Amino acid sequence: MTIFARLLSLPAASRRTVAARGAILVAGILTIGLLLVAPAGAMVSTVGSTTVGLQPRNVVSHTEGVSGPTFANPAGNPVVHGSNLYAIYWDPTDAYHPEWQRLVDAFMQQLGSESGTLGNVFAVASQYTDKTNTPASYNATFRVSYTDTHKYPGSGCVDPHPLQAPNAIACLTDAQIQEELQGFIAQHGLPKGMSSIFYLLTPPGVTICLDGAATRCSDYTRSTKEEEESKFESESYTQSFCSYHSDINPDNVSAGNGNTVLYAAIPWIAGGAGNYHLQPVDQTQGYECQDGGFDPSTKPPEKKETPKEKTEAETKEFEKLPIESKLKALELEERERPHEQEPNQVGLGEDGSYDTGLADLIINQIAVEQQNTVTDPLLNAWQDAGHREATDECRNFFASGTLGGASLANESTLAGTLSNQIIGGTPYYLNNAFNVAAYKLTGYGVPCVAGVNLNPKFTAPNPVRAGDTVGFDGMESDVMLNAGTAYSNQGVAQSTYAKFSWDFGDGTPVVSGYAPGAPACEAPWLSPCAASAFHSYQYGGTYEVTLTVTDVGGNVASVTHPVTVSGSPRPSSEPSSGGSTGSGQAVPSGSPSTTNSATSIPAPRVTAAFVSRSLKSALGKAGLVVRYSVNEQVAGHFEVLLSSAIARRLGITGAAASGLAPGTPAQTVIAKAILVTQKGGSSVVHIQLSKRTAARMHRLGKVSLMLRLSVRNAASHLPTVTTVLSTATLSH
Length: 732
Description:
Blueprint: H1 3-8, H2 12-26, E1 44-47, E2 50-56, E3 83-90, H3 98-113, E4 140-148, E5 170-173, H4 174-188, E6 196-201, E7 206-209, H5 235-238, E8 241-248, E9 261-266, H6 312-319, H7 323-336, E10 340-341, H8 359-375, E11 415-416, E12 421-423, E13 426-428, E14 433-434, E15 448-449, E16 454-455, E17 464-465, E18 469-473, E19 478-479, E20 483-487, E21 493-497, E22 499-503, E23 511-514, E24 532-536, E25 541-550, E26 556-566, E27 592-596, E28 606-610, H9 615-618, E29 624-630, E30 634-643, H10 644-650, E31 667-676, E32 681-687, H11 691-697, E33 702-713, E34 720-731
Parallel strand pairs: 3-4, 3-6, 5-7, 6-9, 10-11, 17-26, 26-32
Antiparallel strand pairs: 1-2, 2-8, 8-9, 12-13, 14-15, 16-19, 18-24, 20-21, 22-23, 22-25, 25-26, 27-34, 28-29, 29-32, 30-31, 30-33, 33-34
Helix pairs in contact: 2-7, 3-8
């Protein structure tokens, strides 16, 4: 049934109301300018004894990092270094539709499964650190989805605008939310602490307020007037919110502890457009908790979709039309006004409504609170001078990312299908993330982004003769997170920068330093610098030069180019000094080996394994994603090995891997990456295959690869070496 048909099916009194509203629209009283009211106030807010990070209901403000220069965490207060995610639907009345739960759960599972990748908004948080100098890395695990059927307590507040009977359910305060959450955690023995984030979701008909006086709620009062714009002018509207996050900290520990509970309240703010289980008056849009649905490819972000203004003559002609024609014309105009975007709308759903895609608005709120919680979990970390959190710096900014879908509203749902993210193969429409690194350095920088760029680049010099001094310019690289904040031993915030490492392929020591700049650095850059570097080759030959870039979030990527040097080759009597191609010990897959030059110095403890399981993703921009852990400061390198038989069949060339265990089939080195750490810890590395190698491997349906990591004690003058091997099978 179209909107037009549904309007005609309304009682006569309701149709007269619609017609009256249409006359107001045509007269031009409702223009987009009337929506331009002042934005909501500070985002980290306190009501009574409750302090929360609010996501305000605000469809019109458009920010693009305007307060970014003041965005900081001066005391180095905690961020979340890895998160276990719990989705709890408090729904004893069974009002949360199954299709909504499926979409939300799938999103949270996909959010976790793509941990460590760089292509979505959650990777941007890795630039935000605390005084442990460990980033808020994109390392999420979806643990629990559960429907809590515990009966709602008596309403602790009065819903400012309840749904029509029988759909109104309850008005709950934050205190009641906290009480239910703590009871649920205790009942099911779930882990608390700074690595668990609990999302408590409530269905349509349940409103959440921060206090019993209902001064700030997930719902708001409407004017008694029929004009649509009136609802945006009330104080109740400007004080309303879409979601919030907070913490329960019973021990009042400034850094949190094992009793701390991090949580986000996600009320139903998606409205009821297309939900025929609600009364017609409640089948409203919820776009005020989105950006209103504009198409950034055709209009600048600050201009919402608006219908063309009618001339006086067109208005007179409109007045002559019969009511049915007027309603149809008004319907078309409404489809061009601000409206929801539902990339996962499936049409007529299993419940007989066009409301499945409403879950997309809830998913956006979860994405917003995930970004804010990991960067400001205890509401004392990353904020600007006005107490705005990360997503507040990019309010209603959806304009970058992998754009898809269409902005024009569907006639059945009054929603468009725009998307700007692909996560786990599914399209989503998510508020962009704030990139404070854009303000740390001069030059280009984008403050509101949909993912992280990390693409090392340099141009190999030619011609090169033995003894020539040649330069390698790593400043060609696209490094989004190129500057950040580190903390001294005394907890003092200071600037830090991306790190560049050069392996020139001739056995000389790896050259490492910060960017930007080339030696010698000038203030305020850190020293040593190695974004650009000079090198001289002693002998002729072809050398594989590898540039590895580690951004301030700990993300790592490499690129390798050959350099051909003319001149006499290295004499056979002069052994190579080793270098980046090194040799590994003969060890079983997954087992470490050590070479101790001084038995009194323990060898590094190391693990490494492929995260990637998708061959298509590994051959693309993301590269091979590898997770590793080390127990101390180390230096070394990764090698990706492919069966030499397969390499020959595909025409892939590379050095033969040496030092493998007896009986291991011959392997060819198809990619390398340098690893240099300042301390122990775990992180991920993105190892890029050459375009030629990736193109040839696209022919395969699946392939088994071997990963070899060899490292030495970087801080010791008598280094010991550890080598680990692991394997994985990737398929399309």
